[in-house]
Amino acid sequence: MNKQLILNGTPSASRMYSTLRHTSTPYRDNFPAAPPELGLLQPAIAMLTGNVVNGELIVPPGCIFAMGDNRDDSLDSRYWGFVPRRNIEGTPLVVYWSFDAPTPI
């Protein structure tokens, strides 16, 4: 909530980076507390209907909640639902992450 990533009940140290867009989207920014947006895919609607308990999304066994690396600008599980673990194959070739550069680039 309020752009704070909560993982297993603990606020994540992961920082939320600002994007070029400075617009607020209640569903995206306060997921899952905000009402769902129109046009969500059926799996996302099912996810919200059956897995939100006391304002928190509970990820069932065998499923992954996938988030984009740019949470403000990515379509991810908030929009298309859980990813079945069986659908994930392979090993990453490259892992890339965002970071604060020490000086402007």
Major beta sheet summary: 2 strands, antiparallel
Helix and strand content put the structural class at: alpha+beta
Q: Helical stretch count?
A: 3
Low-confidence stretches: none
* Shape summary: globular
User: Strand order of the main beta sheet, please?
Assistant: 1-2
In terms of quaternary structure, the protein is single chain
Proportion of residues in β-strands? 5-15%
Mean pLDDT: 79
Give the tally of structural domains: 1
- Please tally the β strands and state the result: 6
Tell me the series of helices and strands, N- to C-terminal. EEHHEEEHE
Q: Over the alpha carbons, how many angstroms does the gyration radius reach?
A: 15 Å
Task: Please report the distance between the alpha carbons of the first and last residues.
Answer: 31 Å
Helix coverage percent: 10-25%
Give an account of the 3D structure:
- There is one protein chain.
- The chain is of the alpha+beta class and 105 residues long.
- It starts with 5 loop residues before the first strand and ends in a 21-residue tail after the last strand.
- Strands 1-2 form a two-stranded antiparallel ribbon. A two-stranded antiparallel sheet has the order 3-4. Strands 5-6 form a two-stranded antiparallel ribbon.
- It is built from three helices and six strands.
- It is globular and about 45 Å long.
Question: In summary, what is this structure?
Answer:
By secondary structure, the chain is of the alpha+beta class.
